[in-house]
Amino acid sequence: MELLKNFINGVYTAPVLGEYIDNYEPATGKVYSQIPNSTLDDLELAVLAAEKAFPVWSKYSIEQRGDILVKIAEGIEKRMEEFVKAESRDNGKPETLAAHVDIPRSVSNFKFFGTGIQHFASESHYMAGEGINFTTRKPIGIVGCISPWNLPLYLFSWKIAPALAAGNCVIAKPSEITPYTAYLLGEVIKESGMPAGVLNILHGTGASIGGEIVEHPKIKAISFTGGTATGAHIAKVAGPMFKKMSLELGGKNPTIIFDDCDFEKTVSGTVRASFANQGQICLCGSRIFVQRSVYDKYKEAFVEKVKKLRVLPPSDSSANMGALVSKPHLEKVKSYIELAKEEGGIVLTGGEEVKMPSPYENGYYLAPTVLENLPYNCRTNQEEIFGPVVTLTPFDTEEEVLKMANSTKYGLSATIWTSNLERAHRVADEVEAGIVWINSWLVRDLRTPFGGVKQSGVGREGGWEALRFFTEPKNIFIKY
Ligand code: NAD
Fold first, then answer.
1. Is 19 helix (H, G, I), strand (E, B) or coil?
2. Residues with beta carbon inside 6 Å of ligand 1?
3. Angle value at C-alpha 30, between 88 and 389, nearest 5 degrees
């Protein structure tokens, strides 16, 4: 059984108390490695290392820091296959998805911020006859980055890359459910020339080591991506300590289809937006609203396409979907399908586990599930399921669909499918979301602000937004 280690002060380090927790392979349901159950003792080692490294790292020139981040990107690229296989094994996602999305995007995150930092500028405000203000943007110090399991290295690197580029030292915690690629990253960091202690990676549960990171007085900012309830808890702890916080939380995203859409493109686009990564992307559209005049036609075409999705072990190159991430998560998603039936929902396809031959018979496979006949305000349509489950709901007017789309506590993303430009603009303007895609889904430009409104989060990541978050502005005025 492989024992993973923390990465502290540039060295793989066993947890001080010697405690470990099991790490499962979703494809088989078996434990395949163990990870440190880190405690405050481990965190203190990491904080000490980060404190020592900060004066060095923060004084590096932006070119030096940028070069190291680009070397990290190249280091991952060199080990692409190893990272792809590790991500797929740890998470249950098809290898093809990890190869096309997760790992290439992790490479891009390091390249993007490694080069971006060299173009980052601060503001100056001239006051006629008075003088001039200029703003410095210095790194904060030690920051905490906590990431979820659905896009493990992708979201881990999306946080640590801007934090490091801006000159901070980082204490990062990947999800205990998918720790492996963050563990592998330590090797790449060692080879990159990054000074010891700049990036420290601690493993363990959210309640223990996650909580310790949030509470530690020397960690000045928290960048968190995960569930809304966890975000609320973190805000309660870190708020009174006046820590800077960026919270990227849950979603219940609407997919809005008008009868003037490009029908074929809409059907294939929305199948992908519903079931990519087994529906476990915070941006997946889980509530599909279809204009009544095309409702039956869309339903038939959509369900037919969904039935053709191949749920297979993640290493099978023809898999469209792999395994869900964990047994508890599979049970949670199944419980929502039962709830939907109690609420009057009709299962159009899916709704049950997919049984696999040995050695995958205990893996967490669920058929892509499409439901209809549910009121827009029932629990199934209001609560985040975060799995391969979508609902179909007809609507008549723009006004009606906006009311339904905006009815949840979430506001992360929305997609709109129409060929009417004016309508696209109108609906995009009114829909309550931080990110809107028109006739597309998950087209990502790393320069754009990323994040949600309402209970989908506070703050934005991406581009200058992330570099502003990870720096502390100071305005200095000079009198003429
Ligand atoms: P989670 O909230 O359970 O865990 C996220 C991370 O927080 C993990 O590393 C976990 O160990 C840690 N954590 C848990 N409790 C903690 C605590 N008390 N203190 C500090 N850290 C703690 O979320 P998850 O189940 O890993 O991920 C799924 C959720 O993430 C979904 O709600 C999804 O919508 C959301 N998500 C949001 C975005 C976004 O950008 N908005 C992206 C991906 C996922």
1. coil
2. 146-150, 155, 173, 175-176, 205-207, 210-211, 214, 225-227, 230, 233-234, 248-251, 282, 384, 386, 412, 452, 457
3. 60
Residue 282 and residue 236 in one domain: no
User: Measured between alpha carbons, how far is residue 80 from residues 12, 26, 85 in Å?
Assistant: 21, 21, 9
Residues 2/184, Cβ–Cβ less than 8 Å = no
The dihedrals phi and psi of 476, each to the nearest 5 degrees, come to: -120, 130
CATH, residue 135: 3.40.605.10
Q: What is the pLDDT of residues 17-33, one digit of tens each?
A: 999 999 999 999 999 99
Catalytic residue among 145, 261, 282, 284: 282
Residue partners of 10: CB distance under 8 A and separation at least 6? 49, 189, 190, 194, 195, 196, 197
* pLDDT, tens digit, 9 for 90 and up, residues 89-134: 999 999 999 999 999 999 999 999 999 999 999 999 999 999 999 9
For ligand 1, atom 43: residue with the closest CA: 282
- Residue 201's DSSP bridge partners are 7, 172
Q: How many C-beta neighbours within 10 Å does residue 429 have?
A: 8
Report the predicted TM-score, pTM, of the whole model to 2 decimal places: 0.98
Q: Are residues 313 and 353 in the same domain?
A: yes
Same domain, 267 and 242: no
- Residue range of the domain that includes 404: 253-446
216 and 265 assigned to the same domain = no
370 in a domain, yes or no?
yes
Residues 6 and 146 in one domain: yes
Domain count, the chain: 2
Q: Which atom of ligand 1 is nearest to the CA of 176?
A: 11
Q: Whose CA is nearest to atom 37 of ligand 1?
A: 249
Predicted pLDDT of residue 471: 98
